[in-house]
């Protein structure tokens, strides 16, 4: 028997090798966070958060990707795929099938949590490989939005967001390099200014050497307390 997901590791029993089981569990834990982070890609032209001036227009929002983001965040997207698998696992094991009620976030968090609880069953299940492949495809689709051009399941390359724009009380700008990360909150490693995903496009507008967006407040902002 060979692992049905990586199709390289020999197995004594079951369908997923330990590494693929870990990867599948990792994706189950990451997908809800990714679903939340994708919201930042849904609001091209919206205002940045107040601490970045609020007036910096997200002129560089990747418009063609918005449909993909909508698809991923819709009921049939990440949420539906996880719920379908949760139902299939529960059906196979004779467990109750939960009703699909409440907000999409609520449904997603539940389905992901219930699948996590079944990870040892999934590793032995004949459909474990297919489940693992579908989760991998979802993560890849999110990554393709966030980092266009990245290949299947590559570890994410750090995407340079820009230089930290927080200034100290003397007006000296921090200037530390910031890198995108969809798996944890982005924060300046030097001054600890937080940069949530919905600030990244605004951050780009505030980079040194870029034409400043209209608005008297930009450039006069107080440093953001960490
Ligand atoms: Zn494997
Ligand atoms: Zn900083």
Key traits:
single chain, 41% helix, mainly alpha, 7 helices
Q: How would you explain this protein's 3D organization?
A:
With 226 residues, the protein is mainly alpha-helical. It has helices at 18-37, 66-73, 75-93, 104-117, 119-124, 128-146, 200-205; strands spanning 159-163, 177-180. It has a domain at 18-146. It is 41% helix and 4% strand. The longest helix has 20 residues, at 18-37. The model is unreliable at 44-63 and 215-226 (pLDDT under 50).
Strand content: under 5%
Element order: H for helix, E for strand? HHHHHHEEH
Number of strands: 2
Gyration radius, rounded: 21 Å
State the low-pLDDT regions, or none: 44-63, 215-226
Counted by DSSP, the helix tally is: 7
Summarize the main sheet: 2 strands, antiparallel
State the end-to-end distance: 52 Å
Average pLDDT taken over every residue: 81
Task: Tell the overall outline.
Answer: elongated
The helicity comes to: 40-55%
Q: What hetero molecules are bound to the protein chains?
A: zinc ion
**SSE class:** mainly alpha
Spatial order of the strands forming the largest sheet: 1-2
Task: Please describe the topology of this protein.
Layout: H1 18-37, H2 66-73, H3 75-93, H4 104-117, H5 119-124, H6 128-146, E1 159-163, E2 177-180, H7 200-205
Antiparallel strand pairs: 1-2
Helix pairs in contact: 1-4, 1-6, 2-3, 3-4, 3-6
The structure holds zinc ion (2 copies).
One zinc ion binds next to α1.
